[in-house]
Design a protein that fits this description.
Order of helices and strands: HH
Radius of gyration: 29 Å
Number of helices: 2
Distance between the termini: 47 Å
Helix content: 55-70%
Shape: flat
Largest sheet: none
């Protein structure tokens, strides 16, 4: 039969292995992020002209709205009553 000390040892050993594995995964991911950032910093960016989207400068997205749909008001009390 397992004693409390033996059980604690197995649990703590398992947790230690999980912690080590998580640390290894995070270190590897951190190195990948760091390498990507170094690569992006050394890369030279070329200036690109803004894309002409064919819209007038005084035209907004709201001007394109065709229809407004009115939704019923929300009642949190009645919604919680329906869940029960």
């Amino acid at each position: 039969m397992l004693t409390q000390d033996t059980t604690d040892y197995f649990v703590s050993a398992k947790n230690a292995r999980l912690i080590e594995w998580n640390v290894d995964v995070l270190v590897r991911l951190h190195k990948q992020v760091e390498a990507r950032r170094k690569h992006e910093c050394t890369r030279s960016y070329k200036y690109q002209k803004p894309v002409d989207n064919g819209h007038d400068s005084d035209h907004t997205v709201i001007d394109e709205i065709k229809e407004i749909i009115t939704l019923p008001t929300f009642s949190g009390v009645s919604a919680s009553d329906e869940e029960i």
